[in-house]
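For practice. Any example?
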Amino acid sequence: TDGGVYISHDRGARWRMVGALPVSQFYRVSYDMDQPYNVYGGLQDNGTWTGPSARTGGISNRHWRVLGFGDGFWALVDPTDPDTVYLEWQGGRLQRTQRSTGETKIIHPFELAGESKLRFNWNTPLHLSPTQRGTLYIGAQYLYRSRNRGESWERISPDLTTNDPEKQKDAGGPVWVENTTAEYHCTIISLAESPVQKGRLWVGTDDGRLWTSPDDGETWIELTQNVPNLPPNSPVSHVEPSRADANTAYVAFDRHMLNDFKPYLYKTTDGGKSWQPLTNGLPDEAYVFVVREDPRNLNLLYAGTERGLFVSFDGGQNWQRMPNLPPVPVHDIMVHDLMNDLVIGTHGRSVYVLDDITPLQEVSPAVLEKPAHLFSPPVAWRHSSRMTRYGRGDRPIVAPNPPYGAMITFHLREKPKQGRVRIQILDSQGNLLRELTRVPQEPGIHRVVWDLRMRGEAVETDDESQTPPPNTGPLGPQVLPGTYRVKLIAGEFEMEQLLTVKVEPALEPYLTGIKAGHQFALETLGMIRQLNRAMQVLTSVEAQLTNLRQVARQQNYKLPDELDKAIGDHLKQIGELKAKVDNPNTGLAYARSARLRGRLNSVYGQMSSNTGPTLAQVAYFNEVKAEFEEVHSAIRAYLTQTAPQLSEQLKTSGLPALLIGEL
């Protein structure tokens, strides 16, 4: 069905929905400004839904909520009240819903006594004014405006359709008249207000009339006759006012129900007096549902067609297919104002999100001619992981989250002739915090992700086939919110971009604690590094003494008794020092209490949290710090005072001296 695939194992008595198929048919999509943001949309015969763009453990069906009934279409969040959503179902049935409570109020306009019956399209256009907060527009055969969130409406246009009675007859019969509003014709199907001029309206109808109003509905100018090579009665599938100026707009016509599948897409720069076709590169059967102008690069356009998503980098003069997407109908396209993600609603393959489209907005022939290029990175958000379900198995679908950290995108024209491609993370003063490993080296556009961590003790390698050695130490702490520098190095080419790191809104109350914990974490990491180095040197001395005894036995060489006893005493002392740092690998694991290294790692984890340390954790830090100073001093004393004495004994006996590394 248009609600998915169902399976029955008892001849149809009971049915189970197959929930692992992302086959939703979206008519429209939108978003809110939550962090992470939510996507909204109306589905064919499945109401109106909202779901998160990210969720701990991935996005599954259970994270989506139903907001509305029937066939869902437009769903728009009120910019003055994020808890309010305007949504509709077939035939212009408009409601205002509170997300937090689910309370709903029907708010669509009604015809008054003596007025013609209102004709709302199956997919009635709804528009929130970008220039007049709280103002809504909705189209029947007339255009209506509300200045009070749908409490009352005023008609601001005459009938903008042909009002052809031959196209307004009942469907079905004679036994049953089937008017579900899908049959309604002579209706407004597209409308928008200019984002740069208050009240500059553009309206299109399903029977082929295109209009503009320069004064919020006081006067109307028909533009249909100005569009070249357009057959009559062509439904206006979308109008897109430009952010460039009030006289620039794009319009798409969809004639597939007239057995004409060609794309019809035009642009005007003079308020609709003349129109230029923009279809070069669009396939013959890619009739257009929607065209969007990018909010940051006005030459970058997106077209949703019956044959998939297309993109133009030159204002629509040439189009190319967007790769890595199925050739499925794309009914709506949005660019998130804050996150700069591309959100598309498909009619058959649900919703897709392309994280951070900055490379699309910045790419140009000049960029591609450079040896390499580092695109502007988006804001990176530090956020917490939340608890989630586990043990779900593989049957439920789980959509991936955006990668955690800073997305870094770069272009290589060719592989460097010398050296590797490197990416460095610097603080605002230019101090190196981290150099990323496993950076792609081949030509093309690549994206890597920095996990917001500084350099730690964990070993990082460039070889993806090489597994890092275990127990090499903790990862570095996450950086604090602020401004950082990303440096791309490709041979002799270098380029930097600034990167902003922020914390999610939920963490802002903890920011003071996060900063305090960061300093404790850095101090703890310093102790871990000192301890690791001391243990490396101590273990090296232990290995040299053990090997000396082993070689002596193999060569039948008898060590002097006094020297052999001294070596034994030193090995015992080394063992006692190591036992203060790590649990001996003997006895029951659960019975071995944590030693210094484990306690340091525990403190480090506590101080690196996203809420900051508690008073008890600070007290524990001070306790472990005192233990570290005691143990590290004892190891240092052994390596700088006691071990050199044994080394002199070895040299006196004609044996190799100990190699004692620097601490």
Summary: The radius of gyration is 34 Å. The chain has five domains: 28-108, 113-274, 278-357, 372-385+402-462+472-503, 508-652. The CA atoms of residues 424 and 435 lie 4 Å apart. The longest strand covers residues 493-503.
